[in-house]
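User: I'm putting together notes for a lab meeting next week and I want to include a structural view of one of the chains we've been expressing. I don't have a solved structure, so I'd like a prediction I can at least talk through. The sequence is below, exactly as it appears in our construct file.
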Amino acid sequence: MDELLGRRVPWSAEAEQAVLGSCLIDPACLPDVLNAVRGSDFYLDRNREIFETIFHMFTFGMAIDPVTVLDQMKIRGVFDPESTTEYLRELMRVTPTAANVLRYAAIVRDQALLRSIIRVCEETVETASSGGGEAGEVLDLAEKKIYALRNDRAVGGLLPASQVVQTVYTNLSELAASGQAIPGISTGFRDLDRRLLGLNKGDFVLVAARPGMGKTSIGLNIALNAAKATGKTVAIFSLEMSREQLVTRFLSSEGMIPLANLLTGNLTEDEWRRAAGAASVIAGTNIWLNDNPTLTVAEMNAQSRRLKDLGLVMIDYLQLMQGSGSGNNWAGETRTQAVSDISRMMKIMAKELNVPVLCLSQLSRANEQRADKRPMLSDLRESGSIEQDADVVLGLYRDGYYNEESENPNLTEVIVLKNRHGETGKDYLAWLGEYTSFRDSDQRHEEY
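Assistant: Thanks for the context. Below is the predicted structure for the 448-residue chain, given as structure tokens.
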């Protein structure tokens, strides 16, 4: 159709043939090729079928040469007796050497990306022209699709399990080679990392607590630890505190300076020195702050997509958020339903961005009526589907908050109420209220 309309479809016959010829000449190049290009990147059906046959054989550890590939194509039902044999010979004849195979693969991948961009633009024009949604919705959909292309992922659609297996296997190999103890981003807290295996890509992580327990502090601690440890971009959306208040908290925690002193400016010479050191550390991170109290989930998602090398998104806090772009403050629906919709959208956001989304949430007063005031999943305010959408739910409890005679008033229990990746349980942190910060505790962790 594109040729009939006078438009050239981006593709390179020479590059596609050279990739396939290289694989047949030197199968040793296959691991690198499979990391650089996929079957769907080939424009011609015939080339795609040959590549997917070679990919299938490699996945199952089969010997790869022109004879075995021909045999496997017959088994897969993609063999044309009149042309396939001669075409394989032609592929090897036109490929001068397999040494430049990654360059050929890059051309194939680049042309496929151009075709995908054209497709997304055509779909956007079609949606906008048909009146299939409001301008904001069409823009958000287009942005999602372009972001997915930039991050080499598809929006929706079916993928063969064999392709997903290869992706998982590649990720596993990279993790093994890195020597990292955990697959996800470190929280900065030893025992919590051990239990959660870090904060993993696509996870919706909820930290729930009553006011005054330190949920904002632990969120900021995790965000700063993640930014320092990984060097990746961290986006913080605060619907409660200003940017200046957030950075003041960072200075207090990082420099171990009493927050009260920072708020009054009454600092000792040593505290000024530590404040300068902490400011240098914070300035060296790639943390981005937004303190707009009327932000919607869609706006947070859109802003996060524009950040390069995103590693973590933190939101403070769930009950203050608006779900839709209309800013209707849940008009015409119950607050429970609205908050449930927001939690679902945040899980979708985590999956789309392929980064952990750390969201803070208030607990209801239900625990105040119990003798044991430790949080439970059912204590989540307007819980709705929150507990089902979240991959990890952490509850904070500090006995010193309720009991003035507590033996260790600063000992904080981090109760893992839900953990989709492993065990639940209880770990301990030390609350340093003067510095609005948490540190690892020597207290032993427990099963829950």
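A couple of points you could mention at the meeting. The beta strands are 204-209, 233-238, 286-290, 310-316, 357-362, 392-398, 411-419, 425-432, 437-440. Residues 235 and 313 are 5 Å apart (CA to CA).

User: Perfect, that's what I needed.
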